[in-house]
Design a protein that fits this description.
Blueprint: E1 14-18, H1 22-34, E2 38-42, H2 45-55, E3 59-63, H3 71-79, E4 86-90, H4 95-104, E5 108-111, H5 116-130, E6 141-143, E7 148-150, E8 155-158, E9 161-162, H6 167-177, E10 184-185, H7 186-193, H8 202-216, E11 226-229, E12 233-236
Parallel strand pairs: 1-2, 1-3, 3-4, 4-5
Antiparallel strand pairs: 6-7, 7-8, 8-9, 10-12, 11-12
Helix pairs in contact: 2-3, 6-8
């Protein structure tokens, strides 16, 4: 899978657009095809799941307000068998609904009304993050200008010295680094690091994120790598 914006021989990226508003589907199809994407569309959740299984899209653009089921159910249905990037497109503005979609497995969230340029940029980013890394070794070492994370050795190095992290700090760092550039919801982080019975103890995240920033950021009060999305979750940027 290669983005149609790249150079050299290309396999067109296939997009599945799921929305019950014909004018939005039409606008997306026109804009995506103009940029050499291959596009399938569905107007409800059941059709979306069927088309996804049959056509194996490289990325899904999904409205949450579908006539037959909630878009979150579609996300869960897809996540039962595929890690395809899912970009949610919705008129719902509350952070709770955004968090629910992200916790179900969505990769990003664009609120209607949206700018086509922004949507296409988010879509390209989602596709890039999902591209295979070759032998799988490329992401074992993750480098930033401030520190280096060795996921295989479970070590962090800053200024030529190993940084001592607690097991919990390491686990939190690992989850974020393995999702570089992607917003990870609070509930997902809590459950992956502390266990399935945790989901609302957001104070844990604040405390441990502050510790990671203090140990790894050059300016912890203005973090460049451990970014907070208020009310939603956290994002790691290189």
């Amino acid at each position: 899978m290669l983005s149609p914006t790249g150079g050299g021989p290309q396999t067109p990226t296939r997009v599945l657009v799921v929305d019950d508003e014909p004018q939005i589907v039409r606008a997306l199809v026109i804009n995506l095809k103009a940029r050499k994407y291959e596009v399938d569309s569905a107007h409800d959740g059941a059709t979306a799941l069927h088309v996804a299984a049959a056509r194996h899209p490289d990325v899904v653009v999904l409205d949450l307000g579908l006539p037959d089921m909630d878009g979150v159910e579609v996300i869960r249905g897809l996540r039962g068998w595929t890690r395809v990037p899912i970009l949610v497109l919705s008129a719902r503005h509350s952070s709770d609904e955004k968090v629910e979609a992200l916790d179900a497995g969505a990769d990003d969230y664009v609120t209607k009304p949206f700018g086509m340029d922004e949507l296409l940029a988010r879509l390209r980013a989602a596709v890039r993050r999902a591209e295979p890394t070759g032998g799988g070794e490329d992401d074992v070492i993750v480098e930033t200008e401030d520190f280096t994370v060795d996921l295989a050795a479970k070590k962090v190095n800053r200024d030529g010295r190993d940084v001592r992290l607690t097991p919990t700090e390491w686990h939190l760092l690992e989850v974020l680094v393995r999702n570089t550039g992607r917003l990870v919801g609070q509930k997902q982080l809590l459950q992956e690091v502390w266990g399935p019975s945790y989901g609302t103890e957001t104070n844990y995240l604040r405390v441990y994120m502050a510790q990671l920033r203090r140990k790894l950021e050059s300016d912890p009060s203005h973090p460049k790598h451990f970014i907070t999305e208020p009310g939603m979750g956290y994002r790691f940027e290189r």
